[in-house]
Amino acid sequence: MKKFEEIREQFKLKINNVNNHQSLKELKVEFFGKKGLITGLMSEMKNIEDKKSYGQAINDLKCELMAQYNIVEQEINEVLLNEQLKKDAIDVTLPGRKNKPAKQNILLKTAREIEMIFIEMGYEIAIGPEVETDFYNFEALNLDKNHPARDMQDTFYINEHLLLRTHTSGIQSRTLQANANKDLKIICPGKVYRRDDDDATHSHQFMQIEGLVVINKKQNISASMRELKTTLSIFANKIFAGEDLEVRFRQSFFPFTEPSVEVDITCSRCKGSGCNFCKQTGFIEVLGAGVIHKNVLKIAGYDEDEYVGFAFGIGVERIALLKHNIDDIRHLYINDERFNKQF
Ligand code: DAH
Question: Are 163 and 155 in contact (CB under 8 A)?
Fold first, then answer.
């Protein structure tokens, strides 16, 4: 019994000094462990006559000390928890993290600006499918199956008759056919595809905005070369307003127009003196255009002698590159925040 009293006193002393998990654990091992003081009392059993009450007494002592132990353990846990809570406290006065506002990509923004210029001139928007038929993309534009000009527009074929459109001119064919012998004034924005090697000024996928005006010759306004040049000059002056860039019309060839022109704008990088970007020419080509070929009107069901029209196809990327002095077309697609947030 003396031994019991000693253990009890010892436990009291020690537990009063326990103030963290480590010393609590040590105390547990020292008293309740396999080789601990309480278990040690069992070894005396062999010398005890009334084994039952002795065993009972050990158990009582163990329960008594364990109860104290549990109280202290709970206290320590509470202290630790409170410390943790204090450390993790949320400072409600801190400003919240703001979501960065989304911004329109400069390519789409440029497309919308181009569209607005034509909408102000009375054009309506027409759209068409990106997966186009060979007929609308080529044949209806006077480019039959073995036409050599098809080489310049190699594309991705879905099958023999279906392909990823190489230009927005297919929407011309569709809209003409659906409105045969009616006046038309439309622009057609969209993505187009070419089997092309990507570099600073080329991409296998890019954007075009097609334009088309068809008018009955009996009207007192026309839609021929003169009106085409006026329209495109107005467009170039508006989109590049405030910039000192020259617009150049150059004779060209397209199977769907006759005569055909290409329009170049002074290279904004070198201001026309010649650099790598413009391949030393001082100009960047931004669009193709011309007076609609009679065959195109005829294939669509128009009376080709009664109607006249012009058409053009603007490369949206080229306009964006020139207008914002961007040195590589690929910046427009990569979605790098550092690039995007400049505009
Ligand atoms: N479709 C031509 C191209 O992608 C551009 C073009 C030229 C469109 C003349 C036209 C046009 O509407 O009349 O290269």
Answer: yes
Ligand 1 site-directed mutation target among 167, 203, 206, 210, most atoms within 8 Å of CB: 167
8-60 tens-digit pLDDT: 999 999 999 898 889 999 999 999 988 889 988 888 888 888 889 998 999 99
**Ligand 1 centroid to 244 CA: how many Å?**
26
Residue 340 and residue 105 in contact, taking contact as beta carbons nearer than 8 Å: yes
Pair 49, 90: CB distance under 8 Å: no
Contacts by residues 179-185 (CB-CB < 8 Å, ≥ 24 positions apart): 180/300, 180/301, 180/302, 181/301, 181/302, 181/303, 181/306, 181/307, 182/214, 183/214, 183/215, 183/216, 183/219, 184/212, 184/213, 184/214, 184/309, 185/122, 185/123, 185/124, 185/212, 185/213, 185/214
- Given the structure tokens 């027409």, which residue do they identify? 126
Q: Looking at ligand 1, which atom is closest to the CA of residue 256?
A: 13
CB-based burial of residue 127 (10 Å sphere; 0-12 exposed, 13-18 middle, 19+ buried)? middle
By most ligand atoms within 8 Å of CB, the mutation choice from 153, 209, 254, 297 for ligand 1 is: 254
Mapping DSSP to helix (H, G, I), strand (E, B) and coil, where does residue 83 land? helix
Residue whose CA lies nearest to ligand 1 atom number 3? 167
The answer to whether the CB of 156 falls within 8 A of the CB of 195 is: yes
Distance CA 334, CA 243 (A): 27
Q: Scanning the structure block, which residue is given the tokens 């060209």?
A: 252
**pLDDT tens profile 236-267:** 999 998 888 889 999 999 999 999 999 999 99
Ligand 1 center–CA 297 separation, angstroms: 15
Nearest CA to ligand 1 atom 7: 288
DSSP state of 157: B
The answer to whether 291 and 306 are in contact (CB under 8 A) is: no
Rg of the chain on CA atoms, in Å: 42
Would you mind telling me the total number of residues written for the chain in this entry? 343
Ligand 1 centroid – CA 169 distance (Å)? 6
pLDDT, one tens digit per residue, over 60-86 is 999 999 999 999 999 999 999 999 999
